[in-house]
Amino acid sequence: MKGRLPLIVLLFSCLSALGQNKNKSIYLQSKNLFAALNGNKIVLDGDLAEDLTELFSDAVTADDIANELNNNPFLKGKITFIAPNAQSAGTGRFNSLIKQAGSLDVTNFANALASLLIDRAKEELNLAFFNRLQQFSIKYPEFQTLFPTSYDRLRNLLNVDYPRMLPVLREAFFSDIEQLTYNLEAVLELPKYQALRNNFPEINMAIETLKLIHKLENGATPSEVIVDVDDAATNITRGDYWANASLGFKNLVTTVHFTRIFSESLQGDDATKIWISLTDAKDLVKNENFTRLYLGLLWQKVVKMRELRYYKNKTDFTSLQDLLASNSNSILLFQNKISQFLSLASQVQHNYNEIKGLAPGEKPGPEQYYNYINTSLDIIDFGLSIVKLLDKDLQPDDYLDIARQSNNLYKDIYSKQYTMAVNDGFEIIGSIHDLIKTKKDDVNDANVNIAFNEFSTFVSKAKPYVLFIGNVADAKSEEDIKAALNNAILPVGSSSIKKNSANNLSIQAYLGAYYSMHNDRSDAVRAWSDKFGVYGPIGIAYTPGVFSFGKGGALSLFASVFDLGAIIDYKLKKDSVITSTDPASSSSASKQYTVNLGQIFSPGLHLVYGFCYNVPLSLGIGAQYGPGLSKIDVAGTTNVINPSWRFNAFLAVDLPLFNVLNKTKDRK
């Protein structure tokens, strides 16, 4: 399972514990008071007063309780409470809660040679990509933590033959993705992020939440989850770093406490049910006096918790008790919200019963857990909506996106949609990153800046590798794997990278046409005899930041190594061989020719201008030596003549294959 995160347990903060409270719920207490209502008066006899003592911090007698209730904003002037005798009452206690393909094996046939060059070139690029992935995994402990088995395989990458490399890695990818929900939380616990944990309680809540959801997956009850979440939240509020908590996060914690109070208040006396049903609550949601009794006791419980506040800014806050009191005449509004809650609760109850009603030894399926968690998230959404309804300006940090992503991650894994799984998992990390980013300027700590910059670097650089892992794991055929590799090398449109770079070094190819300038050497027939021709060099391009002009294009220095122009030219012409005297029966035939590696070796140096904006065309000028192979004619005969130097200009499509080095310019 934006593994599982800060509210995904908060999702269960509205789940009510089964049999977790020895005291009666607020619903049952208000039900007893409603039964004792005579006109507009209630006499607090011993039993009624005893039931209510746990809602009051200081009241110990029926007189004290009656005085408190008679001043309750929901009850004052509506219902009068009378204590027949001063009686002592016991005090109650409040119960708390994510290969070596360097050599080219040249064949004797043009198509075979071209295919070999293409295939081996791709293998070289693929191997280079795997080497980069290996170096990335070694450099970043976050990757090692997220994908430990893959990291172990990558460390020994060069000891594996290329044909076996992908199967070995793919098996490791499967293993790591299956454990992604557990590995996510471990990333946040890395020592390098201690400074972030010390200053951002949101991260600590995220870690605790992930652990608690794992307990739920392993059979923990909702009551156990609620207790653990409350304990975690309480520990966070008591920590030194609580002072650095954002106002939104503090509002969120208040909402969590209130949602739990509200949820527990609607428990019944049927141990098989998490909450009362709509049928049970018929009078509660229709009779104003019953509703006021219920809300009055709910308010008392909030008052007892004292420091429950909602912040609009650092100095302007509203206590939860005042917020509720200011809406004491909105009885119909509360009745509607209670009805909505219980309607959602019935769905959670149904899913809960499915999980608990299985035969002995039979475990719930992942789809059942997914549905259970999803409906519980709807309950949390409801809990937050109450606060926003009472005051639209009070906006707690919204962790629900992270919670939804966490549950989607769980679903992705059990349904074996691995690309979606790694994407959802990585988006959870990205969401935490963005959450910290919006708050880090409020913390003046050099260690925080260092840790955050390292986190940012990992987030920005890891995404292509993470998606590659998912794509390979998802692949159903060899073609799917090839597509994953092609996407990982460099996407279409990568010619624009060097135009926005502070420093770029790439393996580069061009495909277009050349114009050869005058050659004074006439002592022999030379390779560069044509003024125009097809140009297909592969080499290395370097673009310094000073010549990277953004929308204005870029100037690069290009050193060619090979030139496949003659072979490309031949393939593009698609010559026909007449195999019959009847033109209608002519057909295309493959022509056989022999080319060796030395014949396409063609070193050179060019200054190349990449066109403005994102137009993938380049104009170059420079000098080149070679090639031994100058042309393949219609009959399939190769023309091998004396190589020589030429000065030429070319216009070609810009085809960067992959970046060896790239540093993006800072945008101000």
UniProtKB/TrEMBL annotation:
<feature type="signal peptide">
    <location>
        <begin position="1"/>
        <end position="19"/>
    </location>
</feature>
<keyword id="KW-0732">Signal</keyword>
<protein>
    <submittedName>
        <fullName>Uncharacterized protein</fullName>
    </submittedName>
</protein>
